[in-house]
Amino acid sequence: MERICSQLDQLMSHDLVGGVVETIGTTIAVGGFPAPVGSVVEIQRQSGKPLAGEVVGFRGELTLVFPLEQLSGVRQGSSVRLIRTMRSIPVGDSLLGRIVDAHGNCIDGFPHPALTMRSPMDQDPPIATSRPRIHETFSTGVRAIDGMLTCGDGQRIGIFAGSGVGKSVTLGMMAKYASSEVNVIALIGERGREVNDFIERDLGPEGMARSVVIVATSDQPAIMRVQAAMAATSIAEYFRESGRRVLFMMDSVTRFAMAQREIGLAAGEPPTTKGYTPSVFAMLPKLVERTGRSAQGSITAFYTVLVEGDDTNEPVSDAVRGLLDGHVILSRAIAAKGHYPAIDILASISRLMNDLVSEETRRAAQTIRELMSTYRENEDLINIGAYRQGTNPQIDLAIRMRSEIDTFLRQAMEEKSSVAAAQQQLLQLAAKCGARPIPNAAALAKAKRQTQQAGA
Ligand SMILES: Nc1ncnc2c1ncn2[C@@H]1O[C@H](COP(=O)(O)OP(=O)(O)O)[C@@H](O)[C@H]1O
Ligand SMILES: [Mg+2]
């Protein structure tokens, strides 16, 4: 089938040639060129090599092409040739350990591997009814997630965080310690320096060995950033369909959405929610639905979402949250205390956890959550010394267990963990807090009033 498609492509591409009519902002309008959306085209220039572009839409009789490089050298009447109607990228096992761009070209300075297979960039997600249920745990290697927010093999989770609170480090730890056979990591819209830092510091040779990294930096055209996200998903699909357990990470889906907004606006879409165009909200589900489990293998996926300030109700956050089976919130306040990974357990959730773990583990996690919540509610009182020990057994216990819970949740970058180890430690920890009955909310509120009065 793939061969037939590419032959068809070749037949069509030999024939279809159009001419540049005008430029509209950063897009090029081409006349006499009925190529379908998504087609790859080449625009001849006055001098130098032809400019690559992609068909993004139409206006009247004109076909709109978004260039992959600077426009310079393009003039009115420049000829535009169709190269391929279907975008695909070369794939194969020899991509492991390599860094590639949105088109699958290796950009790590080593020779390009010989790859004979191609995988389509746009692909429909597996049919809902053919998707096996998620019933096995996925070991991320991050203890706080494995213990308190256990994830399933094929689950999709969002990591919501501002900049500098530990996204890259956390993703790097997963790449090194997770139970995946293959990691596919998409770095979308980061600065070049951040990319190098991630590859050298966070991923290291250990993580890199079983990873493919797909990069489109912030200085590349919007279309390359969108395509890198699709290419990465496509590479992950190739590994999944060859039967592997894949860990997929995209940092960040927000930058992907911003790039798509830029293309949408250039193609004349109206800005709707906070300047985002409708195509952004049409593309997000198409993108994230492609990961997950299929009959052959699984793609467990983590998508990072940038949250600026405390604005977690930003439209991309909202859309992504609704599409995924859980979210991990990284908190600046927690990071500021030097507590890493800075996961706000109480604000995070894995929607599949209860289906995946034993009743005992579920209860243990619940016990720890309740103690953390009790501590947080009374933190101000405790900190100013207004809480009198002995007033409330639950608060006493929360204070007593606090440092052990913190030790359990903290993890240095170079410290390995697994879901089995995390669950075992969680059970031990809960056993230390366990036997005591948990007072009801009314009793807690009363204790709080009493301590407040005592403090006043
Ligand atoms: N698990 C950790 N242990 C110790 N320090 C950490 C950990 N995670 C993050 N950090 C600290 O936070 C800084 C920023 O983390 P980084 O992952 O680069 O943030 P982001 O990708 O969200 O911008 C790191 O340079 C490091 O000092
Ligand atoms: Mg980062």
UniProtKB/TrEMBL annotation:
GO molecular function, one term: ATP binding
Chief subcellular location: cytoplasm
Superkingdom of the source species: Bacteria
Domain AAA+ ATPase: 153-335
GO cellular component, one term: cytoplasm
Regions that span the bilayer: none
One Pfam family matching this protein: ATP-synt_ab_N
Classification via SMART domains: AAA
PROSITE patterns according to UniProt: ATPASE_ALPHA_BETA
InterPro entries to which the protein is assigned, alphabetical: AAA+_ATPase, ATPase_a/bsu_AS, ATPase_alpha/beta_chains, ATPase_F1/V1/A1_a/bsu_N, ATPase_F1/V1/A1_a/bsu_nucl-bd, ATPase_T3SS_FliI/YscN, P-loop_NTPase, T3SS_ATPase_C
Gene Ontology BP terms: protein secretion by the type III secretion system
Record localization: Cytoplasm
Keyword Cytoplasm recorded: yes
Keywords: ATP-binding, Cytoplasm, Nucleotide-binding, Protein transport, Translocase, Transport
Catalytic activity: ATP + H2O + cellular proteinSide 1 = ADP + phosphate + cellular proteinSide 2
Protein name: Flagellum-specific ATP synthase
UniProt source species: Blastopirellula marina DSM 3645
